[in-house]
Amino acid sequence: MNAKDLLHVAQEHGSPVYVYDADTIVSQYERLTSAFAKVENLRIHYAVKALSNISILKLFKQLGAGLDTVSSQEVQLGIAAGVDPSKIIYTPNGVSLEEIEKVASMGVQINIDNLSILEQFGAKHPKVPVCVRINPHVMAGGNANISVGHIDSKFGISIHQIPHLLRIVENTGMTVNGVHMHTGSDILDIGVFLYATEILFETAAKFKDLEFIDFGSGFKVPYKEGDVSTDIEDLGEQLSGRFNEFCKSYGKDIALAFEPGKFLVSEAGHFLAQVNVIKQTTSTVFAGVDSGFNHLIRPMLYGSYHGIKNISNPEGKNRFYSVVGYICETDTFAQNRQISEISEGDILAFSNAGAYCYSMASNYNSRYRPAEVLWHNGQAHLIRERETMEDILKNQVEVELELNSDLVEA
Ligand SMILES: *Cc1c(COP(=O)(O)O)cnc(C)c1O
Q1: Is residue 357 flagged as an active site residue?
Q2: Superfamily of domain 36-262 in the CATH hierarchy
Q3: Name one GO molecular function term (predicted).
């Protein structure tokens, strides 16, 4: 999508608004599947939590993808989008046995990440095959909050506990049909990732009834020029060969599964916000927009970088700005950023706004969550309406307390 297309969306649907380019999603999906073309049996499960709009899930269904889910609600959304439960994998962390049983009863593939639940589930439902999430204790990530494979991580069953895991499987008579790892977001170094996969292969060989190995995700996408990103083509080349070798030694053509979120949708998304005010202080020029961390929290939460362009004046002279939101606490999108000259009323476009942006939006400050638009063939399809006051009041219950009469205003 170019600046003109984006501006057109802002004019048609108002601001703030999220826009997703269907072509970018499709081409990222195709990049991934062609990188692993040499694998006979490839399963891509799109990680719903990155961007969970039902129309996005329908697009992935059309492409032939399955879904990776972390809550029973995401499972229900996927089923509502028409995805077959057998193509959904459920990888929760710290949820109750009841929720896992509920999801299993829908015919969804369960992925269990701790021995306590594995033991209880296996004892009650030995006929339901499960996948186990292994923690190989490899630190592949960039950001400590989103690195989940290290030794102190709450995720997965430690490789040091495999002997106990095998005893549980034997004693309950349950079937393990998959092994899984997800080392955390942002794989910067393919070598480190491949090292973790070797640990997973070694673990996989200990299970007799595997149908798949799931290598999780964490593919890094570029946020700005010069950023390191995961070389999917190189990873595909190296891992495909190794995987096919494993299948030979295992004696069965099992499936290779991935569950990317960010890689598939991050770059497809733009967030559009309008500049309400330009404020010149002694040290800084602020551009204050009609949004805040209630709509796009990643810069404040993770220190994430999002490119910002002034699409109302793309050819303007570059000047330095701090772009800030309207929330009543520090709410900075970008500091000292070179952006083409901004006037009040201009529309700014934030890039890499497809993953973990709308899905993390809130009603903080009692603001409405934005609208969402899916762009395809030069057309803007509204896929979520902007909220209204009704949404803010929905589920709120008004009570009037009986206070002592001397406290009540006459
Ligand atoms: C969040 C998550 C993913 C997706 O991670 P990305 O970095 O967005 O690709 C995949 N698998 C699991 C288990 C997750 O929790």
Answers
A1: no
A2: Alanine racemase (3.20.20.10)
A3: diaminopimelate decarboxylase activity
